[in-house]
Amino acid sequence: MTPPSPGHQDKLSPRPGRGPDWWLMLRKFVSHGTSIASFSPSSRFLARSMIRGIDWVRARCVVELGAGTGPITRELVKAARPDTRLVIGERDPDFCRLLRDKFPGQDIVEGDACRLDEILAARGIARADHVISGLPLPSFPAALRDSIIRMSAKVLGPDGEFRQITNMPWVYLKLYRNYFRDVSFQLVPLNLPPGGVYFCKGYEPTAA
Ligand SMILES: C[S@@+](CC[C@H](N)C(=O)[O-])C[C@H]1O[C@@H](n2cnc3c(N)ncnc32)[C@H](O)[C@@H]1O
User: Fold this and answer.
1) How far does the centroid of ligand 1 lie from the alpha carbon of residue 63, in Å?
2) pLDDT tens digits for range 48-73
3) I need a surface site. Which of 66, 70, 130, 167 has the fewest CB within 10 A?
4) Is 84 exposed, middle or buried (0-12, 13-18, 19+ CB in 10 A)?
C-alpha cells in the first residue's frame, strides 16, 4: 500500500529486469532470510498446482499474497477471465517493480499481507473466493501468522479457500489443521526443492 520512497533501494536490490529471476530471489533470500524463505522462484509445475481447479466462471476475486518474481502470478493472469478481479500482493518494492514490468495493467499492491482487509476495502472488494499464499507462513512469528490467516479467512468468508505453498511436503499439515477444519495436501515433486500445496477451507482456529 505504501508507495516506494524515491530512490529507495537497498544494497542488494538490483534494478528489476537485470538478471534472471532466480538471481533476484537468491539475493533477497540472502539479505532477508525468513521473510523470503526460498532461494529460488517456484517452478511452473508448482505454480500451476497452486491454481489448479479454480472455478474461473464463479471466481469473482482471487488474491495472491507474496508474489515474489511472479511464477504464480503468471499462471493466474493466464487463467483468469477478464471479469475476474486479481489482486497481487507483495511487500518488497523490488519484487513489485519487477511484477509491474512483467504484468502491466495488473493490480500489483505493494503492501503487507496483514492489511489485506484494508487493501480490498480500498478497491471496493468485500469478498475473495481464493487466497493464494506464497508467504513463508511457518517461518513467521506465531502472532503474525495468526493475524495473516485470520485476515485471509475474514475476506474469504465461509465458502472461500486458502491455498498455501510449501517447500516442506506434508510437514505443516498439522499447523494448518490448527487453523482450518478441512486441509489437504498435494505433492509437487518438480520443484527445487520438491514442494506442494495445502488446500484449506473452513477457518476454525484451535487454541494452540
Ligand atoms: C517464498 S517467496 C514466494 C515467491 C513466489 N510466490 C514464488 O512462488 O516463487 C515469499 C514472498 O513473500 C513476500 N512476503 C513476505 N512477507 C510478506 C508480507 N508480510 N506481506 C506481503 N508479502 C510478504 C516476500 O517478499 C517474498 O516475495
Assistant:
1) 13
2) 999 999 999 999 999 999 999 999 99
3) 167
4) middle
Which residues, at least 6 apart from 146, have a Cβ–Cβ distance to it below 8 Å?
Answer: 205
Radius of gyration of the chain, Cα coordinates, nearest whole angstrom = 16
User: In the numeric block, which cell numbers belong to residue 37?
Assistant: 524463505
**DSSP category for residue 122:** T
How do residues 197-207 score in pLDDT, each as one tens digit?
A: 999 999 999 86
Please report, to the nearest 10 degrees, the dihedral formed by the alpha carbons of residues 60, 133, 157, 52 taken in order.
50
Report d(CA 123, CA 31) in Å as an integer: 32
Q: State if residue 195 touches ligand 1 by the CB under 6 angstroms criterion.
A: no
Report how far residue 163's alpha carbon sits from residue 152's, in angstroms, rounded to the nearest whole number. Answer: 10
Determine the residue of 24, 135, 137, 168 to mutate for testing ligand 1's pocket, defined as the one with the most ligand atoms within 8 A of the Cβ atom.
Answer: 135
**188 in contact with ligand 1, CB cutoff 6 A:** no
Question: How many A from CA of 159 to the centre of ligand 1?
Answer: 25
